[in-house]
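Aim 2, interim progress: modelling of the iron/sulfur cluster-bound target.
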Amino acid sequence: MSRTWFSTLKDLLGEDYVEPGTPLCAGCGAIIALRLFHKALGGRVVWVNAAGCITLLIVYPFTPLKSSWMYTAMASAPAGAQGIRDALDILIEKERIPVEEDLKVVVVTGDGAASDIGLQSTSGAIHRGLDFYYLCYDNEAFGNTGFQYSAATPYGSRTATSPPTPLIPEGYRGRKKDLFEIWRAHKPPYVATVSPSHPMDMIRKIEKAEKYKGPKLFISISPCPPGWIIETMDTVKLAKLAVETGIWPLKEAVYGEVHHTYIPRRLKPVEEYLKIQGRFKHLFYPVRRDDVIAKIQREIEEYWRIVYDKELGKEDSGLT
Ligand code: SF4
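Predicted structure of the complex, ligand included:
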């Protein structure tokens, strides 16, 4: 249960807090994020879970975790975290448990709870300055109920509730909610985006966040083989392509101040990311939808143009 420090990727081979053989789908990106997160935080953790895919991780009396776990309804994980944090603080104050036995309180939710159903209680917890971690595994839909669209579904994606039709051939017409910016507007000590394809970036961010008392929020892209219609072996490849095409920027904000932790020198065309996912197949077959692909590409370039100007200077722009 001791805390390990990580200098290189090799150090990640150390103690694991998630045993193999979970009931999640093969290739699930969410479990990779949770496993890395647990490694970085160490073993003294209590997870507070909003109902979602990861809820299946623990089917009583079986658990692959070496840490504690509490379920809540979808809307109320941060409220559950508040109760646990308060209880721990009271026990420590009354000297019923020593400070060394304190636990880190971590909410873990999918994007449906984070972006929508649980947003109100999350906003309240951030506003109250609750000392907790929050990990959102973003598979961009409601994964465990059959991949219906959520507020985090990107434009052009096929979901169970946004199939391409003759009237709406591009699939999902809405826009992905910008959860990073919603959280950042509250000015908590720490907010970051992470990816299972960049483990050291994730570990460094968690180590940095540990210095702050208060809400520490992380959003991890989480490729989902059955929903994204990808091979189980392509999870990390997809997460990496998301970063390299610029559709998933790696960044952090300390008390609202944004900094990108990885800036691609040349953005790969987003088509490379889209075309290997079945949920975007209708943009390429039977008729290629250049208009939709170009719109997605344009939005990415508009985002990065601002970042390049601000953080690199115009002459170093990765855009042609
Ligand atoms: S549906 Fe997707 S997110 Fe849910 S467990 Fe399966 S792979 Fe993971």
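The domain at 14-316 is CATH 3.40.50.970 (Rossmann fold). The radius of gyration is 20 Å.
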